[in-house]
Amino acid sequence: MSTRGVVFVHSSPTAVCPHVEWAISGVLGTRVSLEWSAQPVASGQMRAECSWSGPAGSAGALAGALRAWSMLRFEVTEEPSPGVDGERFMHVPGLGMWHGRTSANGDVVLPEDQLRAVMAESGGSLTRRLDQLLGTAWDDELESFRFAGDGAVVTLLTHRVG
Fold it and tell me: Pfam families under this entry (predicted)?
């Protein structure tokens, strides 16, 4: 089953940029050359993004490959495909990797059993745990990096629902 998604590298040291391209190329099985631009939020860092297509589960493989460089800030998305949920991976130095399932419109989907377990263990810390499940700290950290600066390539997610 084939699907598609987007890799957003929000910040990478210049020296690591070729390694990022090689890692993505290795997972997708085709040469990938990214258009890098300066990341205005982090001096000396670069940003890039690219659309990809491949078998379902490729987002996990891409995130796993990029995770080798712990200083990267990145997101990898995968659109839902027949019988397979969409996925979103985010990595932030100091927070590590976050993974969530996504619906057709891109919302994070929390399984009922996960919510029930959190509610049972929360004892007043429900908000903190739900924020963790939703990836709030990762979203907050990456938000300023998501803005595409002047002249940066912007990749839009496209998925027709229905």
Answer: DUF3145
Q: Rounded to an integer, what distance in angstroms lies between the CA atom of residue 144 and that of residue 92? A: 13
Helix residue spans in the chain (DSSP H):
17-28, 58-66, 112-122, 126-134, 136-146
- CA distance linking residue 84 with residue 56, whole number of Å: 7
pTM of structure: 0.79
Strand partners, 148: none
Helices 58-66 and 17-28, interaxial angle, to 10°? 150
Q: How does pLDDT run across 103-148, given as a tens digit for each residue?
A: 888 888 988 788 778 877 876 677 778 788 888 899 889 988 887 6
d(CA 23, CA 66): 7
**Contact in structure between 53 and 4 (CB atoms under 8 Å):** yes
CATH class of the domain whose range is 2-109+141-146: alpha beta
For 60, other C-beta atoms within 10 Å of its C-beta total: 15
47 touches 11 (CB < 8 A): yes
Q: Is 63 helix (H, G, I), strand (E, B) or coil?
A: helix
Distance CA 7, CA 88 (A): 10
